[in-house]
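Annotators were shown the component list below and the corresponding predicted structure, then asked to write short factual statements about the assembly.
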Amino acid sequence: MKNANSVNILAIETSCDETAAAIIQDGKRIISEVVATQIDSHKRFGGVVPEIASRHHVEQMTQVLEDTLQKASLSMKDIDAVAVTEGPGLVGALLVGVATAKALAFSHQLPLIGVHHIAGHIYANQLIESFQFPLLCLVVSGGHTELVLMREHGDYEVIGETRDDACGEAYDKVARVLGIPYPGGPHVDRLAKQGEDTLHFPRIYLEEESYDFSFSGLKSAVINTVHNAKQKGESLKKEDIACSFQESVVEVLVEKTYRASKDYQVKHVVVAGGVAANSRLREALGARFKDEDVNLSVPPLSLCTDNAAMIGAAAFNDYKKGAFSGLELNANPGLDLEQYGKR
Amino acid sequence: MILAMDTSTDVLTVSLHDGKEIIEEYSSKNKNKHSTRLMPAIDRIMKEAKVKPEQLTKIIVGIGPGSYTGIRIALSTAKTMAWTLNIPVVGVSSLKALCLSAIMSEGYVCSFLDARRGLVYAGLYDKEGKSVLPEMNIHIDQWIEKLAQYDEPITFISPDAAHFQSLIHERLGESANFGGPGHQLIRAGLLAEYGKDMAPTDPHLLVPNYLRMVEAEAKWLEAKRKSDNER
Ligand SMILES: [Zn+2]
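Structure shown to annotators:
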């Protein structure tokens, strides 16, 4: 049974290779959460195959929803709104979630809320700790590397972003060069712990004032180093390559975040996205902000990867504003974060 | 009250059937807009008929073959509604749905869809709509060869008929007939009529009828088969 004054949002996320649903109370409390992962199915291809992801979503979606309600001992009568990731992401995968959410909202005549995937990642932090504004978020994932400034709930300004590869993408490419299986990021992190920064790859800061990122140069440096060593018949320790690469990535991420937090005098710094699970990044951010008068939150590992709880957390804000979507809601693989915040 | 829908081809089609007759039907050809238009179309015919979601008793859905994305839009919608409203759902092949506008004609009916690169998704049915040949994804030449062994006249039904009409006439001659333009489309009204007494499927277990493996998976299986043979 639900408590009369609270708001329960049933949220759905299918933007990539996880079929996920969750029930979130008042944007802050996870009542239940279910994720059906497809990692094993995509592993054999060395990456996510979009059509296969879509096929799994349509097969698993209703079962995931049923399990989510059952875990919460709730029925659709206890739900106040249905939220779904509208974009960005894989269009075919997003479409399954969107069609499902619309059918649910229509069947029970509930408000429908389309949510931006990155807003979701940012709001994963709200499940742990209330936001203090102005807030700065470092978004790091397989598809995104951004610094987002928030002056209030639902207001997003992208002050820096990657000019080429996303940070997670660079991890995956380096993993491939090192012959590490998909998904590469966590493996590189693990290897790096046993190595040392012997190669000291370049730290790419771009222009002095810029909060933008670039990882393609670093990626090329790693590939060239491995290639040259191979030609000369020298052997490099995989652990050292992983560690040297990771140190370069983390240093730039942490320094740019630190500088932006000073320039904008923020009260709260949060981290979001799959790469937020990286142990070295978490450690380095902790050290950098330790003596600062800024609150730093890093989500627990379970909330770094794609999940529906974060979508429910972000949707609560739209619910309060009454920013609902119509039944014509579509999947939008190129949805813009700043525009999403303005509607 | 029965709700039927299909979005596996360029035509979006929805209908309401009260168990005796079709009471609402809406079809629209507008490729790539199925995602934005399916739910509003359902909302519209239900409002017209003053039917509330909880008054629905059964859902019938075209499960493909056809556009992969299109199939999943109707299927996600139908599965979710059936599961959450706790009513039965029936999946009908979209080729079967397509043949329904011609099954009263003399001889057999072949419904097919262009699957590109010379391939078609095709099925062959008798007057009652029973399958004569299993539905398959096959090269048009091979499919015509299979059809050539029957003496019955065959009526061809397809939104893509124009691409193949002269080829089919050339090979099969007078025994090949083509449905008129208004009969070349899937109609949810006929889908409801056909599926209304069919046995339902557990909504969790209802899956698309793609008739084709994902290319990456087919390649992976082929490579695996080769390496297994070498061992
Ligand atoms: Zn994500």
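Statements collected:
1. The pocket of zinc ion is lined by residues A 117, 121, 141, 273, 306 (CB under 6 Å).
2. Residues 8-122+304-342 of chain A form a domain with the Nucleotidyltransferase; domain 5 fold (CATH 3.30.420.40).
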